[in-house]
Amino acid sequence: MPFDLPRLPYDRTALQPHLSATSLDLHHGQHHRAYLEAVNARIEGTELAELSLEEIVRQSQGSLFDTAAQAWNHAFYWQCLGPRAGGDPQGRLGELVSRHFGDAKRLREEFERVALGLFGAGWVWLVQHPSGALAIQATRNAGTPLTGQSTPLLACNVWEHAYYTDYQNDRARYLEAFWKLVNWNFVASQLRE
């Protein structure tokens, strides 16, 4: 069964002024759609057509992996953002952040250090290791924690197309805006027990 472009969990204008509707139209409506169309074209008529997108990511290599992982990463990224979001993580997630980073401010500083240090295109993740520990992980290009043992909790897209419309080449300004949009409720919902 072909994959359809998932609807954004908010209106295309809901993330303004931090991410514009134009940016979402380009990023979601064009890039994310193109990845899904490429996956659909590659799996049509094969046994992979019966698998979930996550299963395809875990089982594929080469160009199929690249497009499937990008499609999955983008779908996850949209869930990590929200209007009237931001602030600091609360509850169990907040406790884990304090335990593993010291506080939310230090988490943001380390996350930004990794994001600004990632040369070229990729993703930065807050993950939970099988031990329960939280960590920050960078992946290049279409890389994703799905191919390892860690559970993705939060994704930040640092491909230039994610922020060029609104921030040009200023990744630091994009990251500053990103924290105002983080949907900590979604992030907390991804924690393993």
UniProtKB/TrEMBL annotation:
Similarity comment: Belongs to the iron/manganese superoxide dismutase family.
InterPro entries, alphabetized: Mn/Fe_SOD, Mn/Fe_SOD_C, Mn/Fe_SOD_N, Mn/Fe_SOD_N_sf, SOD_C_sf
Chain ranges of the Manganese/iron superoxide dismutase C-terminal domain: 89-189
Species whose genome carries this gene: Stenotrophomonas aracearum
Gene3D superfamilies in alphabetical order: Fe,Mn superoxide dismutase (SOD) domain, Iron/manganese superoxide dismutase, C-terminal domain
Function of the molecule: Destroys radicals which are normally produced within the cells and which are toxic to biological systems.
Taxon lineage: Bacteria, Pseudomonadati, Pseudomonadota, Gammaproteobacteria, Lysobacterales
A Pfam family assignment: Sod_Fe_C
Keywords: Metal-binding, Oxidoreductase
The protein, known as: Superoxide dismutase
First-tier enzyme category under EC: oxidoreductase
Domain Manganese/iron superoxide dismutase N-terminal: 3-81
Catalytic activity: 2 superoxide + 2 H(+) = H2O2 + O2
EC number assigned by the record: 1.15.1.1
Record's keyword annotation contains Metal-binding: yes
